Amino acid sequence: MNLILLGPPGAGKGTQAKRLEDGYGLTQISTGDMLRAEVKSGSEIGLQAKAIMERGELVPDAIIIAMLAVRVSAPDIAEGFILDGFPRTVPQAEALDIMLKEKAMPLHHVIELQVDDAALVERISGRFTCAKCGEGYHDSFKQPKRAGICDRCGNAEFTRRADDKAETVAARLEAYHRQTAPLLPYYAAKGILRVVDGMAEMDAVARSLEAILGPPQ
Ligand code: AP5
Ligand code: ZN
Q1: Residue 75: pLDDT band with limits 50, 70, 90
Q2: Which of 101, 138, 156, 175 shows its CA 20 to 30 Å from the CA of 165?
């Protein structure tokens, strides 16, 4: 099964993608995580992307599409993938359609997580992430069960993102509404858009996703 999770920054795409990986055996493909790895390694892509990401703007389509084309050719997505943070513009969606058609891979669902802008700012400002497995946590909404230890992998190191500052979050939300929201009618016209209330608590969002996808095998 191949899915896209669509939604504004902080909507819970990464949180739910991790749960779908664990429950359904799908592979998360997060362009944000891929870009942060490029920045960390100091690669050419990382050097180009770093300042753009810190301003909360979108990295140019050509860079993202080339990076994604390599990723969807890897064998580990044979059981299915969850795209998290891609596509983010209509040209990215069009490029994805071409890539998947060439590989005869269907796109089963595009799921929009709907969350109010005010809630997003609160979610992003309290976020921290396991440095090893990427599991997401929150100062108020989701602390590790054992203080300082990741529930998912047992690691004891966590990170906070450079672009999670309030002023950058405003720019990221603006980019979402202007450049990414047009993907909603794009996928609605294809008949594969599903909408989930992302304001609900995490377990309820997971149950709504399960109602769409069917129970894990
Ligand atoms: P990216 O890494 O994709 O970030 P984003 O889209 O801004 O999304 P986030 O990761 O912030 O949020 P999320 O929806 O995953 O929420 P999460 O589950 O963590 O992109 C970063 C940057 O990279 C972009 O700004 C851009 O520059 C660049 N980029 C990436 N892809 C690109 C592309 N395709 N094209 C161009 N540029 C690209 O949840 C947030 C917090 O809320 C967590 O703390 C979590 O614990 C908590 N939470 C989650 N669900 C709930 C809930 N139901 N109730 C309460 N709290 C919750
Ligand atoms: Zn972990």
Answers
A1: confident
A2: 156
Q: Please answer whether residues 186 and 93 qualify as being in contact, where contact means their C-beta atoms are separated by less than 8 angstroms.
A: yes
133 marked as part of a ligand binding site: yes
Nearest ligand 1 atom to the CA of 129 is: 44
168 among annotated binding-site residues: no
8 A C-beta contact, residue 57 and residue 171: yes
Active-site residue list: 13, 88, 127, 161, 172
Q: What is the pLDDT of residue 217?
A: 76
Phi/psi of residue 46, each to 5°? -60, -40
Q: What percentage of the chain exceeds 70 in pLDDT?
A: 100
CB-based contact 117:173 (threshold 8 Å): yes
Average pLDDT, the chain: 95
- String of DSSP letters for 101-153: HHTT----EEEEEE--HHHHHHHHHTEEEETTT--EEETTTB--SBTTB-TTT
195 touches ligand 1 (CB under 6 Å): no
d(CA 35, CA 33): 5
Is ipTM strictly over 0.90?
yes
Using an 8 Å Cβ cutoff, are 87 and 34 in contact?
A: no
Smallest CA separation from ligand 1 atom 26, residue? 58
Residue with CA closest to ligand 1 atom 20 = 32
